[in-house]
Please model this.
Amino acid sequence: MHDIETAEGRGSEQLLARLLHPRSIAIIGASDDPVKISGRPLASLLRSGYAGRVLPVNPNRSVVQDVTCYPELDAIDGEIDLAIVAVNATATPTALRACAARGVAVAICFAAGFAEGGQHGAALQAEIGDICRQTGLRVLGPNCLGAIGVRGGVAATFSSIFDEGGELLPGRVALVSQSGAFGTFIFSAAQSEGLGFSHFVNTGNEVDLSVADLLLALAESDDVDVLLAYFEGVSDGTALVAAAQRAAELGKPIVAVKTGRSAAGARAVCSHTASLAGQDAVFDAVARQLGIIRVPGMEPLIDAARLLASGTRATGRRLSILSVSGGAGALASDLAADAGLQVDAWSPDWQHRMAGVIPAHGSPRNPIDLTGTLLSDPGILERALDATLDHPNTDIVLVLLGNVDRGSERLVAALHDAHRRCTVPVVVVWTGGSGRPRQRLAELGVPCYTDPGRAIAALGALADHGLRPPLSTRPELPGVDPAAARTVLDRVRAQQRTRLDEAESAAVLAAYGIHTAPAVAAAGPEEAVAAAAELGGEVAVKALSPALAHKSDLGVVRLGRTGPEAVRDAAREVLDAARRAGTSDARVLVQRMAEPGLELVLGVAHDAAFGPVVLAGMGGVLVELLADSAIALPPLDLAAAQRLLRGLRGAPLLDGGRDGTPRDLPAAAEALARVSLLAADLGDEIAEVDVNPLVVGPRGAGAVAVDALVVLRDP
Model:
């Protein structure tokens, strides 16, 4: 995957202009039959009002659908911004070479039968990738249905979206989808609910351009405020990180659906576009870290988009509910709790103020019951909104109405006025009735839903996005020596090993300033006795070998030994256990026992899409059983490291838990931040780091790594 920022003339601005605002479009393999896949783009472009040059290319015809047809690209005068390649898979590489030779900027490949279709197709797709790298031609697809620019009538697609002949609803939302059909489902469903779009792009097999590439390009567009994405897999995590960071800088939220959470979903993804779904937990963590709003399906995607497209943003989770129905208000309160929103009861003073503007039989608490009297006195809503918007603890306002049509004009006006003049989101649920009030609210830009659950889920996503923490920066920590760590790694590589023993692993950690328990390596039992005397106090005795990864499971660890005889016996026992495990050349590691404390696990893993990722969790021998862990991209500053630890289910133990002893969270966070620096600096060389346990002492006592394993990536 090459970087759209570095290819000459192929940056984000150029890509957007040539792909989504082309001045000329060539259609290679254009058909006279407007129903065929190869005939649909021309028919749609003629129907959509596209004002640029449309250039059919077919050596067998001089006219296609009443448009002059060219035998080849070289017969066309002038620049060609975009080429649609509507030929079969086997003919596609030849067509793309012709595009590159002619100076075409971007090509869209419709054909299927590539990597998703077996070895022959995979070879064809690899050939396309080579063409892109060798020539600089940008390719969308293959196995995709193209791209749409709504305002310019750019119908570079064989989708049926244009078949009805009606105008598409323009807007400031852009959709990028790996799946063509599902992307059109989202697009059409959103249009039917009144959500307008600026662009829709399907990336298909992503031989070159990915969802991330298009998100980055569209984030730079002045026509786009909100970005929607449907992922089946992430082919280039670095590009997605860059896109998300740029979108965040520009204040443009990304809302995403990603499949592949289940084994069956991952299999379906692979057979569809030959994408690897990747580790879903990694994508989920990265999305949270980058401020990408991940939603579970199509309706939540549309709901969040509608809310964000209105321009409204949330700065807190405190929800004030105004309802024409007490029952609806109660249900909304429950749903709000599920969405992470707070519905706090108002103070007596504020309840007294609200009681003065609603009927006596209403409820001035939160949720506020306006009662059915609202139907005959719309002024109740106006006064209640004024009071609610004045309340200092109102971050979001939700208004629940239903059925009423008569007198709705005044209610709509009050809601529009509140939405227009206030800085907090005002969202409406209007259930039943003719639908005219909802339509009018949508026209006025007021977010309106028919179902409380959908509205509140969208509000929860809005609050999550509004309260997202700042992106982490590289921390400046003393005692970090990457060169010293690389010296250890180079020595291991020179011995043609990829697994470090515990002493070597501890040396790598120490190079990054991570406190490790003092230890001495010994050749055998007698040397172990001398090492124990040097360290003093109670010691742990372990077999030392790169071949011994999970030492507790193999019985090669003895804890709490004191005195020469106990240490000598322990050394003999662990060496015997190592031999039984198949390791005859083990040495002995004697390590000073750490003071008891809370055990965490810190680590580094290598994700196929995102590269090195950092992990933290509740540790010790029960780490797999507890399965309490969190993931993030490195590097992490100290604040981000603390947030990651606070996100663990076992985080209350850091504050004392049952024994009431607060743990040294700052020390644990610093250790995690240092591990993240190791991952950021050496992640291309390291496959795995496992620090288990990191023993966290009482507040002020620090944290110490007691055991560690580093594994290098295969050369």
Remarks:
- The CA atoms of residues 233 and 276 lie 5 Å apart.
- Residues 310-465 form a domain with the Rossmann fold fold (CATH 3.40.50.261).
- The longest helix spans residues 665-682.
- The longest strand covers residues 686-696.
